[in-house]
Amino acid sequence: MYDTDKRKLLSALCHGAIFFSTAFVSVGIPIALLLVSEDPVVKENAKEAINFHFNVWVWGAVIAVLIFISFGLLIPLAALGYLLHWGLTIWAIVSILSDPDKPFRYPFIFRLI
User: Fold this and answer.
1) Does a structural domain hold residue 26?
2) Which domain holds residue 21?
3) Is the separation of the CB atoms in 45 and 96 below 8 Å?
4) CB proximity list for 26: less than 8 A, separation 6 or greater
5) What's the confidence (pLDDT) of residue 22?
């Protein structure tokens, strides 16, 4: 049996790490939790958070190229991207806190891990 409060905290930390920065540093938290945690739900949440980081970086690069090509006309697209990425992360954290026994799965992302 796994500690529910610890599971909630570690799972929320996996997904919430992206709020620390969208740079490569924030992905270290779910990677570390994937390696040290023995809780299967925390491991699944860590994998999903790592995949979400990759998606944010890829789509961020795509949006940056589009903004560059359009000479800045598509800057509102960047705002939409941030709202989407923050909204999905908040949804993940709320979902985990309400049902800690079920790993969260982001919709519409590609999964490398």
Assistant:
1) yes
2) 4-98
3) yes
4) 17, 18, 19, 20, 53
5) 62
108, part of any domain: no
The pTM for the full model equals: 0.93
Sign of CA dihedral 67, 73, 78, 84: negative
Phi, psi of 70 (to 5 degrees): -90, 10
pLDDT at 65: 96
3-state SS of the chain?
A: CCCHHHHHHHHHHHHHHHHCCCCHHHHHHHHHHHHHCCCHHHHHHHHHHHHHHHHHHHHHHHHHHHHHHCCCCCHHHHHHHHHHHHHHHHHHHHHHHHCCCCCCCCCCCCCCC
Does residue 62 fall inside a structural domain?
yes
